[in-house]
Design goal:
With about 300 residues, the chain is an alpha+beta fold. The chain is built from 10 helices and 7 strands.
Length: about 300
């Protein structure tokens, strides 16, 4: 549910977009693909002709950008991801600062490493044969090994780094899917409407009219002529403003709230229906999946040893 003139906004923050990329990428498993921290297309790269295992970096074998639970994120991998991130930014839009880019990429790579480690702990790992199968598929799709190599050169990969990215991406995707699969298709939800006013005076006039017997629907259409104040169905944890959500889930069906003030205005909520298990919309389920993944990563970070070793 997008932002409406009624003033209703679903839960979204800038920081969640990297997580949403995890949710939108690599839905098929155990097929292997890379994930990137930007809007760049899926990334094939250097041709790998034999199914040999890529070396697992350690904290001492090569220069690292970070060490996550004893496993290195290679410095070169990080630096090339920064390049890929910048090259994938939409043209014509204000670019983030160098520090913002560096932090976004570093966060992404640490999260990828944490997900990969959890997948391996659970018994899933991307073998050399799996990686080779994916490379063969990319060669077939592009038409030749030369085309794949050219793509690699353009996108700052060499053979070893591409193999590393494919393996980590597959394992991270497997663990991601395991986490988001725990979000059910149907959950407790409320359907509500609202009277939305931009000023306290407007909201008070509406509340006075309601208390004098004016129908809620009439006022909702008066205050929001394009939508009639319809908010639709929503679960707990979906709304940007928790005070609206708290009121909606505490009211009886047919009951309206007092005036609720938020950053964008003033709301009076009417509960139309309340069900213990109602099918989630695609957007609501994506939002809950994003929150579940974010919570998992936050918890995993708290339990992990993460050392940033950037020069």
């Amino acid at each position: 549910m997008g932002m409406q003139k009624s003033g209703f906004i679903p839960l979204r923050t800038w920081a969640t977009w990297l997580l949403i990329l995890f949710l939108l990428a690599a839905c098929q498993q155990p097929a292997i693909q890379t994930s990137t921290p930007s809007n760049t297309p899926p990334m094939p790269t250097a041709v790998i002709t034999t199914a040999t295992d890529a070396p697992t970096p350690t904290s001492t074998s090569i220069p690292s950008a970070a060490i996550v639970n004893g496993e290195s994120i290679p410095l070169g991998y990080y630096q090339n991801e920064v390049l890929r991130y910048r090259e994938g930014l939409p043209a014509g839009e204000a670019e983030p600062s160098e520090e913002e880019v560096r932090q976004a990429v570093l966060d992404y790579l640490v999260d990828q490493q944490l997900l990969s480690q959890a997948a391996r702990e659970a018994g899933f790992s991307a073998s050399a044969t799996d990686v080779q199968t994916r490379v063969d598929e990319l060669v077939a799709k592009l038409g030749s090994g030369g085309a794949l190599t050219n793509w690699m050169e353009t996108n700052h990969y060499d053979d070893a780094e591409f193999r590393l990215a494919l393996g980590l991406g597959a394992e991270a995707a497997w663990q991601r899917d395991k986490i988001i699969a725990e979000v059910p298709e149907a959950v407790e939800q409320v359907r509500a409407r609202q009277i939305f006013a931009k000023t306290a005076e407007g909201a008070q006039r509406a509340l006075t009219s309601l208390n004098s017997g004016t129908a809620f629907d009439d006022l909702a259409w008066e205050y929001s002529p394009e939508t009639g104040g319809e908010l639709g169905w929503f679960p707990r944890g979906y709304l940007l403003f928790p005070q609206i959500e708290e009121a909606a889930f505490s009211l009886a069906v047919g009951e309206h709230s007092e005036i609720i003030q938020t950053e964008i205005g003033y709301h009076i909520i009417l509960v139309i229906a309340h069900e213990d298990a109602h099918d989630l919309t695609t957007d609501a389920r994506l939002s809950l999946q994003t929150k579940a993944l974010s919570a998992w990563l936050e918890n995993r970070r708290a339990q992990s040893q993460i050392e940033i070793t950037l020069p």
